[in-house]
Amino acid sequence: MVEIVPLASHPHHQAQVTDWLWQAFDRHNGREFFASIVQSSIRHEGLPLTFIALDEGQLVGTVGLWLCDLQSRQDLSPWLAALYVDENYRDKGLGKTLQQHVLTYSRHAGFSSLYLYATFSGYYEKMGWHYIGDGLEYPAKPVRLYHQALV
After folding, report:
1. Residue 44 buriedness (CB in 10 A; 0-12 / 13-18 / 19+)
2. Average pLDDT for consecutive 10-residue bins of the chain (151 residues)?
């Protein structure tokens, strides 16, 4: 059975989470950029937070809850960010489970909304997210913005 826990409870997985984010989201920024993001989110409360999915101790996925994930939209907060599922665990509902964990945590933390952005369409709509328009990722890459009401 997969359990979702804060990365702070298992910090020895920090390097793997960093590598996943670097390889999946933007190899141009450099691994050090993602290492800094992950390091700053190793905590049990407050933001940013990184959660990991473990299957019998094996790291199989990760997701973040960040103050901001899109520089051009600093007016929106907080964000579900950096959702990644190991290739061997894809198409088994783990992405949805990770999203649900962040949604539940966010509700309990008192947030009324949650945002995310993606460069593709179809997946998040199926998960209950509402497309709210377009945005720009640095330097000028178009992205799709999504919202989820928590109250």
Report:
1. exposed
2. 96 97 84 94 94 97 96 96 96 96 97 96 95 91 96 87
- The domain spans of the chain are 2-111
Strand partners, 62: 52, 84
Residues 2/55, Cβ–Cβ less than 8 Å: yes
Spatial contact of 42 and 50, defined as CB atoms under 8 Å apart: yes
Neighbours of 72 (CB within 10 A): 15
* Cβ–Cβ < 8 Å for 82, 64: yes
What is d(CA 12, CA 109) in angstroms, rounded to the nearest whole number?
A: 26
Closest CA to 80 of 97, 93, 55, 58: 97
Q: Are 128 and 106 in contact (CB under 8 A)?
A: no
- pTM for the predicted model, two decimal places: 0.94
The burial class, CB within 10 Å (0-12 / 13-18 / 19+), for 111 is middle
Q: Read off the tokens for 31.
A: 């691994």
Q: Domain spanning 2-111 has what CATH number?
A: 3.40.630.30
Task: Specify the 3-state DSSP secondary structure of 32.
Answer: helix
Helices (H), 66-128: 94-108, 123-126
